[in-house]
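Suppose you are handed a protein chain with no further information: no name, no annotation, nothing but its sequence. What can you learn? This example shows the usual starting point.
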Amino acid sequence: MLDMVLLGFLVITSVAAIRHHDLFVVVMLFGIYSFLSAVLFMSLDAVDVAFTEAAVGAGVSTVLMLSALRLTYRYEQRPKHGRLIPLIVVAVTGAALIYGTLDAPLLGDANSPANQHVAPRYIEQGPQEVGVPNMVTAVLASYRGYDTLGETVVIFTAGLAVLLLLGIREGPQTRPGRSAIGDQVVLRMVAKALMPFIFLYALYVQFHGDYGAGGGFQAGVIFATGFVLYDLIFGEGDTRLVVPPRMLARLAALGVLIYGGVGIYSLLAGKNFLDYSALAQDPVAGQHLGILLVELGVGITVFSVVLTIFYAFSGRRRMP
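A reasonable first move is to predict its three-dimensional structure. Written in structure tokens, the prediction is:
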């Protein structure tokens, strides 16, 4: 019943976002949609996915969309084409998605191939081979290390694309001591009290992913969110003194190099690429060390790219 209620709210939020022409309201509705999705994932016992959706979808994505909205117009302009063409595109896409799920197994079906072959392999042999209590981390960082490396490279590439298309500009608004909201004493005091706990929590999520929900993706976003809060309260100039834009590109590349370097070391040690057992005499200890290193690389890259995108939007002037 709870899942059906959440799905109903998701449908209502989607329809409201489609019908609204106030883009600020649409961004807020998208944030609500992401939050409801995170609650739905929690209801489905997908804690790690819910954590990621809350941090990325409801958190930093909302801030980035508001930053982008600041550069354009608040209200949607009437399109030159009619409503028929978008309706046809949505209908065809929706029909294709529904058709693609017709032969998929039902949720929780014990006879599905995943539950018959893949899941038992990870559940039964994962503790002995990887030794990580959090099965999600073991799968993503060890068994699916190739895929996670690809996702990290995609994030790095997205950051490079933003730099090439928009760049990070300097201007009067990026001088130290200038804040968009003025000298708000209460907000400054609250931010100073919150930011140490935000950064501490990000470190906890980064290095506790072996035992609970978390890891490099979530920790990188949370760490970047702390600097975004600092930027909004104290001004972009002060933030750029703490984390210069030129340093972010190097950090993003460093994260990918850390991840790939672990795989190169495994090859040089006579093992397969990203076989963490080559990092220590005890294979399980090597798995722990390898997961720690690759998650650190992911966290550094995600933090750098998220803050780079925010800098790229916040440093630009509003359209005339």
